[in-house]
Amino acid sequence: MPDKQQSLKNSSSYDILPLFEFSNVVNSSLDLKFILDTVLLTVMGKMLVSKGMVLLTREKHLFEIVNAKGVEAGVLGQAITLKQTLRKPTITDRLSVTNKPWVTFFKAHGQKLIVPILTQGRVVGLLTLGERLGGKKYAEAERQLIHSLVNLSGSAVEKALIIDQLKEVNRDLDRKLQELNTLFDLGKEFNVVLEPDKVIRLLTFSLLGQVGVNRYAICLGKGRNMQVVASRLEKDVCTPDLFETLQELTRAESVDELTRKKKFATVAATLKEGGIRVAVPMLVQREVKGMILLGGRMRGGLYERADLEFLSSLANLAIISIENARLFREALEKQRMEDELAIAREIQQGLLPRSLPVIQGFDVAATNIPSKQVGGDYYDVIAISPTEYVLAIGDVSGKGTGAALLMANVQASLRAFAPMGLSMSEATSRINDLTSQNTGQGKFITFFWSTLDLKSGSMRYVNAGHNPPYHFHADGTMEKLDVGGIILGLMSTLSPYEEASVPLRRGDVLVMYTDGVSEAMNSAGEDFTEERLEGILRNSLSLPAAGIIGNVRTALELYTRDTPQSDDITMLVVKVL
Amino acid sequence: MSEFKVHQRDGEGVSVIDLKGYLDAHTAPDLENAFQKLIDEKKFNIVVNCKDLSYISSAGLGVFMAYIEDVRKNQGDIKLTNMSAKVYNVFDLLGFPILYEIYKDEQEAVGKFAARK
Q1: Is the pLDDT of residue A12 over 70?
Q2: DSSP-derived 3-state class of residue B55
Q3: CB pairs under 8 A between A and B
Q4: Among the listed residues A300, B99, B39, the one whose alpha carbon sits nearest the alpha carbon of residue B17
Q5: Of A215, A285, A414, B109, which one is least surrounded by beta carbons within 10 A?
């Protein structure tokens, strides 16, 4: 083909290329560029013209320069508006410049003759020619010849234009298909990837590849708390203020569009500074949970509505996956905590006495109802000699494994110090010193322990900040056992713990309990209270120890009904026979 | 799952990456690792031979975008060669021929690096 084009250009005679051959050449091609080249060069060759252009009708009155010879290449792609419909070759010198920028344009580029390219009466384009060599005028006959030549190509041009449009439509379809493939590809991958970092990386790659950007920021979170998780920006413009405003975006918008909206104008200016051209909210049920900010496309071109729609789909697909990953991690974390609680429960239950020793002359019963959360309640009955028994109850602050281990610590030190023959005051100080060294900040234990002396029929005790146990005397009076000192584990012992001795008589009842009893809640959120407990106990004193506990449990069940138990419930009851 | 393989061949001053199989969101991290390795090794003259590449997705193209800037900043380049028509079509659709040098043949691309020296 180039040879043919060359020969066309060189032909300067009217007779070298008969019209029908020209017609054959242009009408047998579907290549628009070739057709336009052939027409333009043929006419230029025949008329001995060194400058010429071809313009195609793009929209009504809008013509784009698609071919230019002898004219600076910069004009290619430029569009001019020409409202007047030219049906015949028109000499530019005869046109008035007034209010006609297109005339000025053609004159500025040395174009003397404008020839419409017509097919079936429609103007599909324009061919323009510069001055002829030697300044010869375009005579009427020549204008007619040019007009005929140009119109011979009219239908070929139109056909080629349609083919081009089809190609463009095809390409658009290919592009849509590619977008769908991208969404499919990512959807598939997002389903199996449960790490947010990986999701974000794949999202980044897909954005870079599909959109062709190299400036971006992916942000996650809500409102002012949004965080940039991946970015490459010219300037970091992401601030809480920016995110707060962007929170109100309901769909993907170009920054140019945002500039026109009063609410977003300031933000749009900031985004522009960072080289950002479009903002895409990541929506989960209409709520903004993230934001994709993108710079200009490296291959040029603006973001069109269809691009923004694609980006929105991509953004929403990704955020759902990120949300799922987060929920999955939360579920894992919850499972881990439940596992930990199960371990804690095992430790705690292992510390409680499996059975209580039989103590001559005493009726002893105990209960421990662990809550779902696993608190840190503890009770113990230890024989330190055939005539001496330790009774203890305690409540460790906090829950879970930490509380259970702290309780194990207290139990170990109690079992170590109790048989050593120390005074209870001294033993308590040592237990406190040991546990306060081993506990972290804010952990403590309320603790009450007593020693039953069968020989003397009396009991000594120390109360380290525990709910005072009740000592119901056989004569109907009651005493709260509150002598002691501060709770265990807060600090090493500064002032010694006080200990007290109480005589025990037949019919006396000792009730030790933890705050899980007195603070058990009903559905209205009200505590069971010590008063209520005291009342129940008073009415149950004639029962065996186990019966007293049974009565309290029944009362608690009636009081709390279906309200979930929030703390361990522990009681240790001793009745003097 | 379709297979994807990345293989690195180091020539004189130019490293060639051979791609084989499906390059999609699932396999994109493999290519990412290969580019990262080259950058860590300070090998910035890179030719990617796509002879056996049967498919590329946007995520795959994104990996090229993610590294091109670092590579060019170090006076290197990523040049692509031996693409099948199907793979080229994806590059073309997304406007990559403007951003990357694409050659028919590996030797040609390697030659461009040599010529520059």
Answers
A1: no
A2: strand
A3: 94
A4: B39
A5: A285
Amino acid at A372: K
- Residue A504 predicted with pLDDT over 60: yes
CB count in 10 Å sphere of residue B115: 7
ipTM (interface predicted TM) = 0.87
Question: Which residues have a Cβ under 8 Å from the Cβ of A379 and sit 6 or more positions away?
Answer: A352, A353, A366, A368, A391, A392, A393, A394, A512, A570, A572
Top-level class of domain A193-326: alpha beta
Tokens 């009466």 label which residue? A121
The pTM of the full predicted model, rounded to 2 decimals, is 0.60
Contacts of A186 in chain B (CB under 8 A): 25, 59
Q: How many whole angstroms separate alpha carbon A160 and alpha carbon A32?
A: 5
Mean pLDDT of A215-223: 91
**Third-level CATH fold of B4-112:** Transcription Regulator spoIIAA (3.30.750)
Determine what percent of chain A falls in helix, strand and coil, rounding each to the nearest 5: 45, 25, 30
Q: Is A79 left (phi over 0), alpha (psi -120 to 50) or beta?
A: beta
The residue among A171, A193, A206 with the most chain B CBs within 10 A of its CB, best to mutate, is: A206
E strands within A325-474? 362-369, 377-385, 388-396, 445-453, 458-464, 470-472
Triad A138, A140, A146: Cα angle to 5°: 70
Confidence band, pLDDT 50/70/90 cuts, at residue A18: low
Q: Round to whole Å and give the CA distance between A517 and A527.
A: 9
Inter-chain CB proximity A206 and B62 less than 8 Å: yes
Q: What is the CATH number of domain A2-163?
A: 3.30.450.40
B88 touches A at CB < 8 Å: no
Domain ranges of chain B: 4-112
A217, A228, A272, A275 from A235: Cα distances, Å: 11, 13, 10, 8
What does the alpha-carbon distance between residue B18 and residue B8 come to, in Å, rounded to a whole number? 6
